[in-house]
Amino acid sequence: MHFTTLLLTLALAWPLGPPRPEIIRTWEPPAGPYGPGHRGLDLAAPPGAPVHAAATGVVTFAGSVAGRGVLTITLPDTGAPPLRTTYEPVTPQVPAGTKVTRGQQVATLTPPPTASPHCPRSCLHWGLRRGDTYLNPLLLLRQGPSRLLPVTGVP
């Protein structure tokens, strides 16, 4: 299934909010597997904020990676290998193997590690992958292009 067609079939939502969270840092694709870049979005939120599944899927990882809590949800019927969304730093509230629905609370945001802060303030790092390829999570939200409306009645 082509990625654009796939996006039209998914129903996704922001993992934080409402309201729509502020994006502190955008996705910056790396030039190579170990190159510099930013492999997701950083969304502003206070520690303890509820984190919701952006899409219906199955929790395939809920645990700690390098001292940070991480949750991964695999999205069924999204091709081979399937798409996976990741959330960190969090305290997972559902174990691996749990089926979750879009919008269901799956974790709470934890304070950023003090040794190597990822964000200038508390944030959720939201990622998207297909296999070893990192993708921009904003592609999942089906945000159309900006459109300017004509201005009338202005001298």
**What is the CA-CA span between the terminal residues?**
51 Å
Query: What is the average per-residue confidence, as pLDDT, rounded to a whole number?
Result: 83
State the CATH class.
Mainly Beta
CATH topology grouping: Glucose Permease (Domain IIA)
State the order of secondary-structure elements, H for helix, E for strand: HEEEEEEEEEEE
Apparent shape: globular
Uncertain segments: 1-9
For CATH, the homologous superfamily is named as Glucose Permease (Domain IIA)
Strand content: 25-35%
The major sheet is characterized as: 8 strands, antiparallel
Q: Based on helices, strands and strand pairing, what is the structural class?
A: mainly beta
